[in-house]
Amino acid sequence: MWETGENITSQAPVLFKKKQGTVYLTNKRLAWVQQSALAPSVSIKHDDIKSLFVNAATADKVILKIVEIKPDVSHSFYFSSESASKDRDEFKAGISSILSLRQQRAVNGSATPSYSGAAPSPGGGGSPVISDASAPGTPKAQAKLVGMKRGLNGGGPPQELKTRFALLKQNKELAGLHRDLVMGKHVSEEEFWESRKHLLRNKIAMDGQQKGQSSAWLDLKPETGESNDVKYVMTPQVIHSVCQQYPSIKRAYDAYVPDKLSEAEFWKRYFQSRFFHRSRSGRGANEPDDEIFDKALEEDEEETKSAPKRIKLDHINKLVDLSTTEEDHLESYTSPESTMAAGRTKESKEAMPLIRRFNRYAQRVLNSTTGPKKPTKDDTFDMNGVERAIVFEDLQEQQESSRIVLDIQDTRRYFESQGGDVRSSKIQEGQNPATILQQFYNEFTSQGVELNKPFSIPVTTFDALMKNVKANRAKMSPPKDGSQVLPAQLYQEALACHSAGNEILRHFWASTGADKATKHQRMVESLKKIQDENVKSLLIQASSLGTESLNAMRMMLKPMQNGIERALKHAESRPKPPVRKLA
Amino acid sequence: MKDSSANDSNLLVIVIDTNPFEWEHASSPLRLNDALQHILAFMNAHLAGRHDNKLAVIASHVGVSSFLYPKLNEVDQPGSKQQTRKNANVYQNFQVVNDAVLTGIAKLLQDPRPTLEEKDLGSSKIAASLSLGLCYINQALKSDGMGHIKPRILVLTVSPDSSSDYIPIMNCIFSAQKANIPIDVCKIWGEDAVFLQQAAHITEGIYIRLDDPHGLLQILMFSFLPDVFSRNYLCLPGQDQVDFRAACFCHKKIVDIGYVCSVCLSTSIATSSKTWRQGHCSESKLIKTQHSNTNGNMN
């Protein structure tokens, strides 16, 4: 009946679907076994539990309701034994701890796949909700539930709220829009962010990135005090860098501090040592002997002198392993380059330790960020991996999906629709095309074209032309836009009004579906409000500054006003949603 | 193509729509003879503009399209009519062009059209004429080693859009666009010609629909006489708005917001339209688009 490794944490006799049985809570799932049955007929994995409800403690029946993440699946258990409420409390506590644990995991970004898949439902519905006493109609219970959601400013996991807040703080423009729309009650918080999911995603990704260690070569510079004494400040950061740069110092530090030497004493000796001063000019040999640092120096020099160990060639990525293609080059005359071995000339030999030192340092910095690269099984491409890397999907033969080829039988009819409502030349009913042609020919040849005849051009032609040209010209040099004419404050207000209006328009058109009638209605109200209040007040303000400002303002707001008018017209033309009577 | 300069000669290819069913229609406000008076005057004006200005005239007739001037592949018969009608008062070049156009049209009209098919009735061969014009321009450009010929096309049309021409016209438009050949369009009367309107827009030509066809010459002289080079410095009339909206594939309605199949580019009002989908577009390929005219832009 139970899986291996499954332990029953609590159990109680319950009625489920009016059948007597026993409910078990194990470390893996919640299960209900009917009386005298062998296997559980209800089995809910922990990760599938979305929320848990219990009715009021004072109620007659003791009910525990489990809602699964799968939509619309819930189970109600009636605790039937004498210690029913005690049993239920035990279950409640068990499941609550599971849910809160999972929520924690989700916040830490390591949600189990089954959970994270269901989580991003709007309104934070995916987050586990634990509530007490949710017997229908109990005002206290409802208030508690709602309060919990409101407390999070409209729902959503707290992580997201934090991100939203950070985003608003960063982006002034967005904050302004948010203030206008959400604080102005035009759209709800959720709706506002619904269309900006990508911003949140970006922000989360950006915050998730870790800043690596600085790769700068540590240069310890002393501060010179008043009495010409020299002072070095050792912060933990500097100590870390020193250890990073000189592993031999780190070894010495580990060995002596704090057992044999105090930390301050250790660093004091370090700064007096030959180790510290060898790279500084002039003072090479004058330092007193110091057994700790002389040894470290020796180690360090030994380290840089020796060539780095050859990298083991066991785990070479097959895709970059040149030796695997050796057989393709048998015919060629190239041989391995031998003249450019490092350290061959005198100069390069002197430079070698320094180069090695830098290389090692670079490697250590890299490792501290990415972790030392260990050739693991994943890295070595087995044949399967190689195949995965060299087979391109684009080059594969396409599987012809079964589809019906579009076959337009009468192209004429199709393209007629493309041309709009254009009629083709119509030949009047009952007329023979041939006669028309004949008649036309006769007329054409009999009359001829007389070029000497004076032209009678209507006066209106030129006027129309000039009007057209003037309009075109006006478009080429548009009147000064608001940014030059209007005061900065008013201009900003107009911009804000425009973006708010556009946002609401977006919500308006997105809510044309039948299932969003209430939102649609709300958007209509908001649009009207913008039209009647914001736009008007802007125009009044602009008109007080003269006609030029008024015109500029009109021009700025025109596109949005057109959009709003159009939307309102659309809203009017559409059948009113049936008003639901509230019981 | 080299930059245009003031010294370039201009090749003007004029496409005249000679659709008899439109010109002869009861509602036609202008007769072809009168219109030709204007058009010939305009042609002469173009030829008079520069000594090396070139001209080609193509008739877009019903069911056929042919060159009126220059006459291609036609052997001049000695002692023909043209010789006898020589007029001492007319500049020789003008005379040649005028005669060629008039006799060409007369010949077209006279020619009985046994091949005239039922479906061709009433639609002008604009696409064919555009193709002829583009070919002629291409030839002229190739034979002109200096690269000093600046071609352009002027379409004088009266017919409504011929729906079967949609794809050929679009192809012509895109070739013209690629070759930097502006297509000017003058719709002498009637509704806007949507295809040609788009042609003018895409090739940066001028589209004008006449309010009063009797002022044709004025419009031609004012708007279409300036060559490609002068246009840089002139403010010419032209359309202000182009109708780019698409029609719903199944409802035949022009839509502002619709779904576009990313594979076949067909448009529909709703994804649910069964007749439209018919299996050839899966929902995942549909992109909801909004026609740009409805979007307001502030700056």
From TrEMBL, chain A:
Record field: compositional bias (Low complexity): 109-121
SUPFAM superfamilies in UniProt: BSD domain-like, PH domain-like
Chain segments carrying region Disordered: 109-140, 327-348
Alphabetical UniProt keywords: Nucleus, Repeat, Transcription, Transcription regulation
Superkingdom to which the source organism belongs: Eukaryota
UniProt cross-references to CDD domains, sorted A to Z: PH_TFIIH
Location in the cell: Nucleus
InterPro entries: BSD_dom, BSD_dom_sf, PH-like_dom_sf, Tfb1/GTF2H1, TFIIH_BTF_p62_N
UniProt gene name: TFB1
Entry GO CC: transcription factor TFIIH core complex
Pfam short name (any one): BSD
Main location: nucleus
GO biological process, one term: nucleotide-excision repair
Listed name of the protein: RNA polymerase II transcription factor B subunit 1
Record keyword Nucleotidyltransferase present: no
Entry's family note: Belongs to the TFB1 family.
Domain BSD: 159-204, 226-278
SMART domains referenced in this protein's UniProt entry, alphabetically: BSD
From TrEMBL, chain B:
The entry's keywords: DNA damage, DNA repair, Metal-binding, Nucleus, Transcription, Transcription regulation, Zinc, Zinc-finger
Organism in which the protein naturally occurs: Podila minutissima
Pfam family, one: Tfb4
Keyword Nucleus: yes
Major localization listed first in the record, in broad terms: nucleus
GO CC terms in record: transcription factor TFIIH core complex; transcription factor TFIIH holo complex
Keyword Metal-binding: yes
GO biological process, one term: nucleotide-excision repair
Family membership noted in the UniProt record: Belongs to the TFB4 family.
PANTHER family assigned: GENERAL TRANSCRIPTION FACTOR IIH SUBUNIT 3 (PTHR12831:SF0), TRANSCRIPTION INITIATION FACTOR IIH TFIIH , POLYPEPTIDE 3-RELATED (PTHR12831)
Known function: Component of the general transcription and DNA repair factor IIH (TFIIH) core complex, which is involved in general and transcription-coupled nucleotide excision repair (NER) of damaged DNA and, when complexed to TFIIK, in RNA transcription by RNA polymerase II. In NER, TFIIH acts by opening DNA around the lesion to allow the excision of the damaged oligonucleotide and its replacement by a new DNA fragment. In transcription, TFIIH has an essential role in transcription initiation.
Upper classification of the organism: Eukaryota, Fungi, Fungi incertae sedis, Mucoromycota, Mortierellomycotina
InterPro entries hit by this protein: TFIIH_Tfb4/GTF2H3, vWFA_dom_sf
Compartments in which it is found: Nucleus
Molecular-function annotations in GO: zinc ion binding
Subunit details: Component of the 7-subunit TFIIH core complex composed of XPB/SSL2, XPD/RAD3, SSL1, TFB1, TFB2, TFB4 and TFB5, which is active in NER. The core complex associates with the 3-subunit CTD-kinase module TFIIK composed of CCL1, KIN28 and TFB3 to form the 10-subunit holoenzyme (holo-TFIIH) active in transcription.
Protein's recorded name: General transcription and DNA repair factor IIH subunit TFB4
